[in-house]
Every structure is written in C-alpha cells, then in structure tokens.
Amino acid sequence: MDKPGHRVYNFRRRCKMNRAEVRELAARYRNEVIAGDVEGALAALHPLVAGRTPFPLLDLAGRVIAGAAAANPTALTALLDGLAATGEMGAWPLIGSALAAAYLPHDLPRAFAEARRYILQADVWHATDVVGERVLGEGLRADFDAALPLLEHWRDEASPWLRRAVGVAVHLYAKRERNRPDRAARLLDLLEPLFEERDTAALKGVGWGLKTIGRFYPDLLAPWLREQMAGKTPRKLMVRKAVTYLPAEIKEEFLG
C-alpha cells in the first residue's frame, strides 16, 4: 500500500516525469534509505528503473540518492545491490551515477571496487559500458594520476567485461577531455597490452577507446598503430575499429 501523501507514478510506458519530479522522488527515497527503509525505497524505485526512463533522469536520480552515502553507506549499498538484482537495464545508469557521486570525490579505490563488483554481477555488455563510463571514465576525469594505475590492474582480469571496461573508460575520457595529448598518449600506453585481445566482448571496448582517441588525436593514433602492427598480430576487428575516424589514406594503409 502506498504511504499517505506519496504520489503514484505509472512507468509501464515511457517515463513522463520531468527533472523536478525525479529529483523530488529520489530525494524522498534517499531520506528513506538514510532512515534504514531500504525495502520501501527499493519497491518505490523499481518502476523507475524498469520503465522506459531516459538515462539522464536515471543519472539524476542516482546523484540525488548518493547523498545517503555519508549518513548510511551500508543502506545505500543495500539499495544499489537490490536494484542490481532486478536485472533491469535502467538500474545501471542509476547505480553508476550513484557510485560516482558518492565515492569519486574522496574514495576513488572504493568507487572502482564497487564498479568492478557490479560489472561482474551484471555479466552483460550494456551494464559494463554504462557503469564503466560513469565510474571509471569519470574517475579518470576526476583524478587521472590516481585512476590510471587502478585501471592497469583491470587489463589482467579474467573477466572480458572488466578488460572491456578499460577501453570504455578511455573512450569517455577522450571524448570529454579534449586538447590533452599528453594524457591521450598515456591512455594509448594503457591500452597497448590489450591490442591483441582475442575475446570479442573485450575487444569491442578496447577498440572503442582507440577509435575515440583516433577521432580527437589522429596524429597520435596513426604512428602508434604503425608501431603496434610492426610486432603484433591483432584481430582485424580491432584494427577496423581503431581506424574508424582516421583519414582514408591511413585506413587503406592498415586495412588494404
């Protein structure tokens, strides 16, 4: 039964709420999480993640709900675990944005560790990409020098989703942070051990990162590719993705 004074929303079709309404809803259930009513908050938020809610609204809800971390971090984790357990696609933007808002400013290792846990639990590409962008990519933006060595360990992970997430993080950083060739070069160094990746799921993430670097730093990517191709045998799919935004004559050099 709905609590007195609580508005009931129908999310069976595309979410009709605006940003102010989502903010109000998320703030209400953030306060319930702080008070320890995780089950009530989870039941109320499930329609939001199960409906066709636009990702920007889910991101907003996650950022607001993250405010519970300071007062009751255990309850916030329980809420995010409950949302993850639903398996709903809409859960992952909310979870990723909540983790970023709650932990990136002051506890980068915890943010990355929680992202790792949820990516492994989800075991699917879209959750990897959504959480990877919001936590790992934004982690690079928040503290590049601290995030980079954390991601280096992910290159050796057994799970292809975690290796994929390294490329996803690089993609987000290269897209959002322009005119940083020094850091783009370091990101190429980060991806170098994954250039011969054989698993398709992981390869697509790495290729995505290379493709985005090539879009904004073609003068860095082209010579890097020449160096890699001289001594390595990547899958053709990796090369095709990497050269997506390079000039036609350079594409021909690598694909011809």
What's this, in brief?
This protein is an all-alpha fold and 256 residues long. The protein has helices spanning 19-34, 38-50, 55-65, 68-71, 73-86, 91-103, 108-122, 125-142, 144-154, 160-176, 181-191, 200-216, 218-231, 236-242, 248-255.
Folded structure, characterized:
With about 260 residues, the chain is an all-alpha fold. It has 2 domains: about 1-105; about 110-255, Leucine-rich Repeat Variant. It contains 15 helices and no strands. It has helices at about 20-35, 40-50, 55-65, 70, 75-85, 90-105, 110-120, 125-140, 145-155, 160-175, 180-190, 200-215, 220-230, 235-240, 250-255. Helix 2 (about 40-50) packs parallel to helix 5 (about 75-85) and helix 10 runs antiparallel to helix 11 (about 180-190).
Quickly give the structural class: mainly alpha
Report how far apart the termini are: 65 Å
CATH topology of the largest domain: Leucine-rich Repeat Variant
Number of helices: 15
Whole-number mean pLDDT: 94
Name the helix and strand elements from N-terminus to C-terminus, one letter apiece. HHHHHHHHHHHHHHH
Low-confidence runs: 1-12
Strand content: under 5%
In the CATH classification, which architecture of the largest domain applies?
Answer: Alpha Horseshoe
**How many beta strands in the DSSP annotation?**
0
Roughly what percent helix? Answer: over 70%
Give me the Rg, rounded.
20 Å
**Coarse morphology:** elongated
